[in-house]
Amino acid sequence: MASDANAAVKMLLETANLTVSEEEFAIFTESYPILRSQADGLYLPHLDAEVPAVSFDPAAE
Amino acid sequence: MPQDLPLTVKDAAAALRSGSVSSVQLTEGFLNRISLLNESLGAFVAVTGESALKAAQAADSDFAAGVDRGPLQGIPLAVKDIIATEDAPTTANSRVLDPEWGKGVDAPVVARLRSAGTVLLGKTTTSEFAIGLPDPDKGFPIPRNPWNLDHTPAGSSSGTGITVAAGLALGGLGTDTGGSVRGPAAQNGHTGLKVTFGRVPKNGVAPLGYTLDSVGPMARSAYDCAIMLEVMAGYDSGDSYAAQVPVPKYSELLTGDVQGLRIGVPMPYFYDSPEVTDEVRTAVFAALDVLKTGGAEMSDVEVPYAEQAKNANHVTLVAEAYSFHRNNMVNRWNDYGRFTRRALVRGAFLTAADYTQAQRFRSFFRRELAQLFASYDVLITPTWPSPAPRSDEMSPERQLRSVSFTGPWNLAGLPALAVPCGFSSSGLPLSMQIIGKPFAEGALLAVADAYQRQTDWHLKVPPVHTAVAA
């Protein structure tokens, strides 16, 4: 699991062109599974019919 | 703390009109306090003494000429340093923000305060870009809790929170994206209002979360917040999120009457969390008893999916913030504070689908809350699960793991008010949070005002001179 987080964080940082210290990398590797779990927890089955709470006015100036 | 200056805007406004004090005298008094205490408390980034005294002189001239612009005329206030003011740079407490940003202009909310005759004393400390924690290596003041200098004053409106509690101004502006008005109000021991999304224009404010940010009043009492909000609220065409909703005369809604008020008390998550200390729970229950004695009706309720709402708010916040900071994060990583970049980087760790799903959850959560508020006028929870922790115990990762009793209401866009309701055995302030329907700021302020007519927690002042001397 730790190695999965390590690989994911490494890939995400590289994709974002972010260069971080070893200490920061260790912190991100430890906290990433928590963040990932919190985001995954929003994919609730009963939200299937929901639309995002964003609005866009094509007539706005 | 010397008691020679009024504690509240209300008292100061009365003193100004009775002629027992002038705005210049008030302003000089607060500037003196700032010069005595700011180095220890880290409340102000910039003090605009010269322009403050000019504004005070103008207010006194108006009084002498019989011109009265309302209860804020001649009142010294402070402004969080992510809000543009024409007389001081806006730094967002960051080395990254372009020095030209907001230079020489007032944000509309600041312009409204000036038009009402207020005296702006300066710019107050913020967490960098309203996120993260203070980094001592970046050259900005380190904010400290005036009740115990080793403890956090919370953020991100840290400086305004300290300023109100320590009597360095009579009130001020904060911003709130996940709890940044309510946290400092709670942990410094005064009142602070997170307004309905769109209630106060936020153009001229450095963004954090575009669809979450709000500008709110921070002051000792609900009454003071009400008279500030009367000036601050209202539509501005420069903010595409600003609401075109009439602004009530909030202060006239504060009758002291809570007879028949329907209060929902959401025990799951907000009271049952193991992070809630016994002292917090006891203090909020005692506050509920005060309201019950006044005729309010209490019922246990459940806020569905509160934990997911906290998480959806966080996903939204860091995704929106990262879009603003992305280029600077790539090119100037080390210019950001060490805690700021650890929080902001989470936006790079989430997917576009995660952000969209958070907005789908937001639609669902908002509807669930609308159903709940069909049966209740307000909900009441603790504002924070504990009194202020030691500053050296804080980290972005701790915040990620913790419950949040404030973030869910940012996600839903609802107004929420932090109100002092006691002290811990260690002498730190405790706070309850009153949440209401969209644009029901008046109802929240009325409940808090009724409570504050029966209690004096909001008038307690920290022994800050003693602490600084030690």
How many alpha or pi helices of chain A? 2
Beta-strand share of residues of chain B: 5-15%
Largest sheet of chain B: 11 strands, mixed
Structural class of chain A: mainly alpha
Q: What order do the helices and strands of chain B follow? A: HHEHEHEHEHEEHEHHEHHHHEHHEEHH
Task: Kindly name the structural category of chain B.
Answer: alpha/beta
What's the helix-strand series of chain A?
HH
Distance between the termini of chain A: 50 Å
Low-confidence stretches of chain A: none
What does this structure look like?
The complex is a heterodimer of chains A (61) and B (470). Chain A is mainly α and 61 residues long. Chain A has two helices and no strands. Chain A has helices spanning 2-15, 22-40. In chain A, helix 1 crosses helix 2. The longest helix of chain A has 19 residues, at 22-40. Chain B is an alpha/beta fold and 470 residues long. In chain B, strand 10 (416-423) and strand 11 (429-436) form a beta hairpin. In chain B, helix 2 runs antiparallel to helix 3 (49-64), helix 7 (222-232) runs antiparallel to helix 16 and helix 10 (306-331) runs antiparallel to helix 13. Chains A and B meet through helix 1 and helix 2 of A and helix 10, helix 12, helix 13 and helix 14 of B.
Brief characterization of the structure:
Chain A is mostly helical and 61 residues long. Chain A contains two helices and no strands. Chain A has helices at 2-15, 22-40.
Structural features:
heterodimer; A: 61 residues; mainly alpha; 2 helices; flat; B: 470 residues; alpha/beta; eleven-stranded mixed sheet; 40% helix
Compile the SSE list and pairings.
The complex is a heterodimer of chains A (61) and B (470).
Chain A: H1 2-15, H2 22-40
Helix pairs in contact in A: 1-2
Chain B: H1 9-18, H2 23-41, E1 44-47, H3 49-64, E2 76-80, H4 108-115, E3 119-124, H5 158-165, E4 171-175, H6 182-188, E5 191-194, E6 215-219, H7 222-232, E7 262-266, H8 267-270, H9 278-293, E8 297-301, H10 306-331, H11 338-344, H12 346-349, H13 352-372, E9 378-382, H14 396-401, H15 407-412, E10 416-423, E11 429-436, H16 441-454, H17 464-469
Parallel strand pairs in B: 2-3, 2-4, 7-8, 7-9
Antiparallel strand pairs in B: 1-3, 4-6, 5-6, 5-10, 9-11, 10-11
